Amino acid sequence: MKKSSGLVLVLILLATGAGFGQKRSAFYLQPQITLLNGTQSVDGALGFSSGVEWGPWQFGGSAEIDFYEKRSVPFYAEAKRFFGNQKKRPFVYAGAGANFAWPTEFQRFYYYDWIGGGQFYTPSTFEHGRYLQGGIGVQLQSKTGKGFSISLGYSSKTMTEKWVETTWDPSTTTTIKTNRSIKYEFNRVDIKLGFRVF
Amino acid sequence: MRHILVSLLALTTLLSSCIKDKMEEKYTFFRPVYHTRAEVKAAIKNDNNEEIRIPGKIFVKGNYLFLNEYNKGVHVIDFSNPAAPVKKGFIHIPGNVDIAVRGNYLYADCYSDLMSIDISDPANVTLAYYQEGVFPHRIYEAGYMVDTSLVITEWVRVDTTIRSDYQSQGGGAKVFFDMGVLSAQAFSSYASPNSNPGVTNGIGGSLARFALYNDRLYTVSHSDLKVFNTAQPATPTYMATRNFPRGDIETVFPYQDKLFIGSQTGMYVYGLSDPNAPNFLSQVSHIRSCDPVIADGNYAYVTLRGGSFCGGFSNQLDVVDITNITSPVLMKTYLLSSPSGLSKDGNILMVCDGSEGLKFMDASNPLQITNLGTLTGLLPLDVIALQGLALVVAEDGVYFVNYNNPSSPVVQSKLTIQN
């Protein structure tokens, strides 16, 4: 997890440090907005992608704020393979990385415990998960490499919510603390719009 | 470009119906193990191998202590020699919480049923009578509705994983209201007179839901009082039910043709001029708390314990003047730590006071009770005083305590609870 995050950071720094110029750059930076279509809701994600272009390939990393159901921040490495060399360049892409849970206060469970004479609201904790994506798209670009891209794909993010609950144990007539968890897997169809700034 | 966008949107709609959000939930629950009534009845016999694990209510008859093992049965302990009590056996009674002893018969609940067990030979008991469905409030057990044709004999812990489609929770934080403890552990009753010569009633603790008075067995649930005729001790016969206006009843204590009933919000007194139809005489209200009650002479003694499932935060001993039984008056309150069961022998009042131990008090003047001595190092739940010998159920064992010198009580022996 730490290695992949470090790699993404290096790629971003390389891209932002060497990207400004009139010529088509070997590096790219692309802010992007995504419409996430799931079975439960439709939501969005904001982020950017950055990396290096090598022949028909792009290798880079992306970071987003993903608002679908339980807010999170996916960091992932991705690869794109372009076809053709025209203004409209079709591509396929795939990515994988970590999904860092960042739920809002309203997206957590709250544990209400009045045992022991007190009343406490304790929020659940989250464990991070994985992020996967893949899809197809087309890039509309100028000679300098700037331009829009639109893609259709699939993404999946996971995270685990954990909390402690008090369970009545009828065999011992006592309450015991037990762990309860829910691992969420959100699978969405993505429509992604990006603008390559260099 | 427009064609591309339209195509993508159409494709998205099609694909999204194929993709589902999922969740995998892990949690722990307890699952009941059932047996038939015939199997349960066949299993009612002595077993010497059962350890004391979760002691509940206590009843004394002669030199025998009957100790409820919560939801499991009854330990039979011979304390002829208090310095070396002997476990004579264990009677398997699934779902058992309350007990009483009259003559040679042990009355015990088995979830919603009442049974009478012949204990004339404590080492070789036999089932004498079985009455089904007389305690319907016990049909529900730990959230389960007990199958009326089967009996829960044990609970098995299950750590489970459930995979399902994710359901959105919409907006707003989700709060789990953790009800936590609803313990029914350890509550018993008291000595009771008897109109049938030759058949004597046993002595219970202060936290009981079963009480014997003359040839009647009175049982309380959270919301009702039931009467059983025990003139024929082997076959207790259901007589009547009286409903309480509130559903927070905890204990019943028989004293001088009256029943003193402890509830979470007060003490009720019912008269037994007609033993089959207890009539309401009076009540004393108090703040919400756990509340066992005993009576002696012109006073009733009520302990209030807060900070538990009963609610409230008061921990005290209330002394109530019952000289005029239709108009009892709270006379004095003594602050305590975390009181539960209590017992009285002459002028000595014993109170189980949580981590502070078992307190021996001089109650010769109930309005000026003073502490004589304290037995520390135990968490007592209930106590029966027997003329110099206190039988104490505590969290870590059953204690036999000599209090001939109440300022310096001595533990004569202890049966340790197996964890």
Topology diagram in text:
The complex is a heterodimer of chains A (198) and B (419).
Chain A: H1 2-18, E1 27-37, E2 42-54, E3 57-66, E4 72-82, E5 88-101, E6 109-113, E7 120-123, E8 125-127, E9 129-141, E10 147-169, E11 174-196
Antiparallel strand pairs in A: 1-2, 1-11, 2-3, 3-4, 4-5, 5-9, 6-7, 8-10, 9-10, 10-11
Chain B: H1 2-16, E1 22-36, H2 37-42, E2 46-47, E3 55-61, E4 64-69, E5 73-78, E6 86-92, E7 99-102, E8 105-110, E9 113-118, E10 126-131, E11 140-141, E12 144-145, E13 150-165, E14 174-178, E15 203-204, E16 210-213, E17 216-220, E18 224-229, E19 237-243, E20 249-254, E21 258-263, E22 266-271, E23 279-285, E24 293-296, E25 299-304, E26 316-321, E27 329-335, E28 339-345, E29 348-353, E30 358-362, E31 370-375, E32 380-386, E33 389-394, E34 397-402, E35 410-416
Antiparallel strand pairs in B: 1-13, 2-6, 3-4, 3-15, 4-5, 5-6, 7-8, 8-9, 9-10, 11-12, 16-17, 17-18, 18-19, 20-21, 21-22, 22-23, 24-25, 25-26, 26-27, 28-29, 29-30, 30-31, 32-33, 33-34, 34-35
What does this structure look like?
The complex is a heterodimer of chains A (198) and B (419). Chain A is mainly beta. Helices cover 9% and strands 66% of the residues of chain A. In chain A, the strands form two sheets. Chain A has an eight-stranded antiparallel barrel. In chain A, strands 6-7 form a two-stranded antiparallel sheet. The radius of gyration of chain A is 21 Å and the shape is elongated. Chain B has 419 residues and is mainly beta. The interface between A and B is large, with 51 and 56 residues.
> Strand percentage of chain B, roughly?
over 45%
Instruction: Tell me the strand order in the biggest sheet of chain B.
Output: 2-6-5-4-3-15
Oligomer: heterodimer
Counted beta strands of chain B: 35
The helix-and-strand class of chain B reads: mainly beta
- Mean pLDDT metric of chain B: 83
Number of E-state strands of chain A: 11
Which stretches of chain B are poorly predicted, pLDDT < 50 over at least 5 residues? 176-195
Using the CA coordinates, give the radius of gyration of chain A.
21 Å
